[in-house]
Write a structure and sequence with these properties.
Arc Repressor Mutant, subunit A
């Protein structure tokens, strides 16, 4: 009897299962130590089934990065329409943190797991396009605020401002994800820590007369 052909929905579900299993194993074991055979075993399929969807392990990693980074940008997209640039920047920080803490495995792989460098041409995401690239969203808002004269006059590099804001929120999120369940620290609620980090960053980069407005 010939093998039953999978429907489009079944193929999509299998592809999603492969990506989810690979994400878990990349985090647990590291990317280099994970094999296609282990990914297949995790979902109860033969390695051959994986090669029907992906060329190799790096192809899976690229697909994961495209999927997860696009998901982040999509989650933040509505923030771009907020009229007030200061509010837009503040809400973007909160939205980024919400994504990180709601999708800890995604975030671990995206920003906390060493990865090989890929040529941007290999990605299906249009880097620099705010509809697909969360860093482009952040930089677009920072540029808008910079052009409007909202930052301290000594801050003259848009990339530096954007990357410092990103680093601050990332730090609060990554500590929560990696150490939030450890009881040797009397952790304050994560919402309070994110809020204080955001406000501290905003005070640090904004002109004093812009902070109280």
């Amino acid at each position: 009897m010939p093998p039953k052909h999978k429907t489009a929905d079944e193929r999509l579900q299998l592809r999603t299962s492969i990506l989810d299993a690979a994400r878990e194993l990349f985090i647990e074991r590291g990317i280099e130590a994970t094999t296609m055979r282990e990914i297949a075993k995790r979902i109860g399929y033969s390695p051959t089934s994986l090669y029907l969807h992906f060329q190799d392990k790096n192809d899976i990693l690229r697909a994961l990065c495209d999927t997860d980074f696009l998901s982040l940008a999509t989650n933040l997209q509505s923030i771009m329409s907020i009229p007030d640039v200061r509010q837009r920047l503040s809400v973007l920080c909160d939205g980024y943190a919400e994504f990180a803490l709601s999708h800890p495995n995604h975030y671990r792989l995206m920003f906390m797991t060493p990865q090989p460098a890929f040529d941007k041409a290999e990605s299906k995401i249009q880097h620099g396009n705010p509809e697909q690239d969360a860093y482009a969203q952040l930089k677009f808002i920072v540029q808008d605020a910079f052009d409007g004269g909202h930052f301290r006059p000594e801050l003259t590099n848009v990339d530096l401002i954007a990357q410092t804001l990103w680093a601050g929120i990332h730090g609060a999120c990554s500590i929560q994800i990696s150490k939030g369940n450890d009881n040797w620290v009397e952790w304050r609620p994560i919402a309070e820590r994110i809020s204080m980090m955001r406000e501290t960053l905003m005070i640090g980069v904004m002109r004093p007369d812009q902070i109280s407005r």
